[in-house]
Amino acid sequence: MEFPADLKYTRDHEWVRFDGETGVVGITEFAADALGDVVYVDLPEEGTELVAGASCGEIESTKSVSDLVAPVTGPVTGVNDAVVDAPEKVNADPYGEGWLYTVQVESADGLLDPDEYRALVEEQSA
Asked: The pTM is what?
């Protein structure tokens, strides 16, 4: 399982890749594996004001429906229409083509570094 070093993670198994004040958001490989085959994603619309820790969309798989939880606070600046049209990209490449949306980051408290997230996953997998 991958834990890319350039990402920050949440306890809800989402990741953020920072590029200045912009954050690219997706779900982790652990989450994608736990969900199974992703068949539908409901992403926040551009301009939506996200609040870290609040629900901002849904991801549906053949096993369940799960809330997407905003990892940071700020307005959504873009969405990945490719995963809306082909949700299987989330499973195939969760840290690349399977990204979900971008946000102008106003606050990013409480995120985990890769080592902290790896420890969380190992604890939850035990």
From this structure: 0.95
CATH code at 26? 2.40.50.100
**Cβ–Cβ under 8 Å, residues 72 and 105:** yes
Residue 38 within a domain: yes
Distance (Å, whole) CA 59 – CA 28: 13
Q: How does pLDDT run across 42-93, given as a tens digit for each residue?
A: 999 999 999 999 999 999 999 899 999 999 999 999 999 999 999 999 999 9
What is each CA distance from 49 to 11, 28, 42, 69, in whole angstroms? Answer: 21, 22, 16, 13
Cα–Cα dist 99/28, whole Å: 10
What one-character-per-residue DSSP string does 15-71 give? EEEEETTEEEEEE-HHHHHHH-SEEEEEPPPTT-EE-TTSEEEEEEESS-EEEEE-S
Number of domains in the chain: 1
